């Protein structure tokens, strides 16, 4: 647990490796390795809003952090979970393994 999580409850957490979809200089897609760490499903004690938070091992640097939105859908394929989250307010594809 880290800074900004004081008023939140952890509903679920698990270790994983996180990948984020990025656009290469030539315009093509690629998966950027965001590191190994713990992803947590957090719930605010007052507003009851839920968010997904991923902190990288070692540095505790936040690599993913967004509130759960009503139409969020995840797909599970063997050991990979894929979903669209938000990065700086813009839709972004993520994968966790």
TrEMBL record:
PROSITE patterns: RANBD1
RanBD1 domain segment(s): 4-73
Organism, scientific name: Calocera cornea HHB12733
Transmembrane domains' residue ranges: none
Domain of life: Eukaryota
UniProt name for this protein: RanBD1 domain-containing protein
């Amino acid at each position: 647990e880290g800074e900004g999580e004081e008023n939140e409850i952890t509903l679920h957490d698990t270790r994983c490796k996180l990948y984020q979809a990025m656009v290469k200089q030539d315009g093509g897609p690629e998966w950027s390795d965001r590191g190994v760490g713990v992803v947590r499903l957090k719930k605010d004690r007052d507003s009851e809003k839920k968010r997904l938070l991923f902190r990288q091992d070692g540095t505790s640097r936040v690599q993913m952090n967004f509130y759960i939105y009503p139409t969020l859908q995840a797909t599970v394929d063997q050991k990979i979970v894929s979903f669209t989250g938000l990065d700086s307010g813009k839709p972004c594809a993520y994968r966790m393994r």
